[in-house]
Design goal:
There is one protein chain. This protein is mostly helical and about 80 residues long. The chain has one domain. Helices cover about 60% and strands about 5% of the residues. The chain has three helices and two strands; from the N terminus they run βααβα. The longest helix has 22 residues. Keywords: Membrane, Transmembrane, Transmembrane helix. This is Sodium/calcium exchanger membrane region domain-containing protein. It comes from marine sediment metagenome.
Length: about 80
């Protein structure tokens, strides 16, 4: 919209949330993890089409998301290295 908002949850948030859920893969039982993952994906799908307004992720959010991605990269590298 013209006021800098979008309807529903932004699509670029989905991979950030799903990557966070995958950190629990080795901690949880396989069946419980599958249920959690599919539940999160379904909830995110509903939020993408939900009738609420959300501000676009601009400005300082660029740095927050960049830091999040770098931290997640280090965490996944450690997980792979530890296996």
């Amino acid at each position: 919209d013209r006021d800098g908002t979008i309807a529903g949850l932004s699509l670029d948030i989905t991979p950030l949330v799903v990557a966070l859920v995958f950190l629990l893969e080795d901690v949880m039982n396989h069946d419980a993890f599958a249920v959690l993952l599919y539940t999160i994906i379904v909830v995110l799908s509903f939020l993408h089409v939900a009738p609420f307004k959300m501000r676009k992720m601009v400005g300082h959010w660029y740095y927050v998301i960049t830091a999040y991605i770098l931290i997640m990269t280090v965490m996944y590298a450690f997980i792979l290295w530890a296996k």
